[in-house]
Amino acid sequence: MQSYTYPKLYPKYPSVNDLKVKAKKRIPNVAWEYLETGTGDELVIDKNRSALDKINLYPRFGRGKLIPKLSTTLLGQTYTAPYGIAPVGLTGLMWPQAEVYLANAAHRYGIPFTLSTVATETPERIGPLAGDLGWFQLYAPHDPQTRQHLLSRAWSAGFKTLVVTVDVPMPSRRERVVRAGLTTPPKVTPSFVWQGLKHPTWTINTLRRGLPRLRTVEQYSESKSLEQISYFMRDRWRGDISVDYLKAVRDEWKGNLIIKGILHQEDVDLAINIGADAIVVSNHGGRQFDGAPASITALQGITAQYKGRIPIIFDSGVRSGLDIVKALACGTDFVLLGRAFLYAVAALGEQGVRHCIDLLSNDIQNNMVQLGVEGLNDLKDFKMESL
Ligand SMILES: Cc1cc2nc3c(=O)[nH]c(=O)nc-3n(C[C@H](O)[C@H](O)[C@H](O)COP(=O)(O)O)c2cc1C
């Protein structure tokens, strides 16, 4: 316990929040705002945080020397720790080639990395780096042929787990992003250039790789212009998918199928009925619907009813090992983190991601010992309350 890949980083960055502070300084405001923003008044971002903070766990004593074990098996695959990296779109805006660093670090450590459909690198490039631990996230194109082509690309690139996101029926309003002047995909405006000048390392790396592009989907658009691809996505890739659409995906995908973005308990039945292998309880990190419940609150309702019937994954608002421990105590089988890993990569590149993994895993182990448990499963029956 308490061993770090980069011991010298620990005194400077002892928590994810320290990586966040560093990331904010290192990237242009427009990228920061894209990463941080929620929808509307960002009520759900606050709810995610405060609901996690309100959970109390009752530590036990007299358990002797404890050696906590973090490895876990999910959908037939063993992972070194009970968490992984959530899909994040426009990733290269936060840090050029972020997907490469995230996939490398995740593979090396033995946790899953999820590549978004609207990431800035392709499945062909990232699949071999993520190895057999890579997950591919689908924003579903309306056209079945495009979908089949995309799924077969992901499969051939080595992704055997598919995550279908269902909580983006249309793009959400994100006022902070509008104020920051971000267009999707980004356009080179005078303000963008000025911000680039103020963040030279980001700019040099961006110039090396080129401006962020939706490299996975651009081949399906007739035009290669960024603006046209953006219109094309809005038109033909809207995300308002039906149960029949999900059934078609189920028939076409031979690997594990995870449905991401579930909050309502009856939607768990829908997922089970279409033959999904797991669900992600998520409110998209507060980015889609500002009237949604905190994801951890929804999780508690869902695990009470569905624990053991379908593997349950949880995300939204997780920033520490303690948050992960709390989610496991609420009955989730696995946890994903979005922004935390983007802070890490934007702050320190690949070594930031590795450091972030160290921080989270050490924090989980420490908190398990504080509670008096050795196994992740022991957390599920722990005495807890939500105040
Ligand atoms: C900048 C950003 C982009 C995202 N892009 C996607 C995406 O392309 N596909 C998807 O399913 N979820 C996407 N999400 C949601 C994440 O997968 C995840 O649900 C969310 O980040 C969890 O909340 P957290 O950031 O508080 O950990 C995105 C989140 C952020 C912050």
Explain what the structure shows.
The chain is of the alpha/beta class and 387 residues long. The chain is built from 17 helices and 12 strands. It has one domain (9-373): TIM Barrel (Alpha-Beta Barrel), CATH 3.20.20. The protein is globular and about 65 Å long. The mean pLDDT is 94. The protein binds flavin mononucleotide. Flavin mononucleotide (FMN) binds next to helix 3 and helix 17.
Task: Show the helix and strand layout.
Blueprint: H1 9-12, H2 16-26, H3 29-36, H4 43-53, E1 55-57, E2 72-74, E3 77-79, E4 83-85, H5 91-94, H6 98-109, E5 113-115, H7 123-130, E6 134-138, H8 144-156, E7 161-165, H9 175-180, H10 190-198, H11 200-209, H12 226-236, H13 243-252, E8 256-262, H14 265-274, E9 278-281, H15 295-306, E10 312-314, H16 321-329, E11 334-337, H17 339-371, E12 384-386
Parallel strand pairs: 4-11, 5-6, 6-7, 7-8, 8-9, 9-10, 10-11
Antiparallel strand pairs: 1-12, 2-3
Helix pairs in contact: 2-17, 6-7, 6-17, 16-17
Residues 34-35, 86-89, 116, 118, 137, 165, 260, 282, 284-285, 287, 315-318, 337-340 line the site of flavin mononucleotide (FMN).
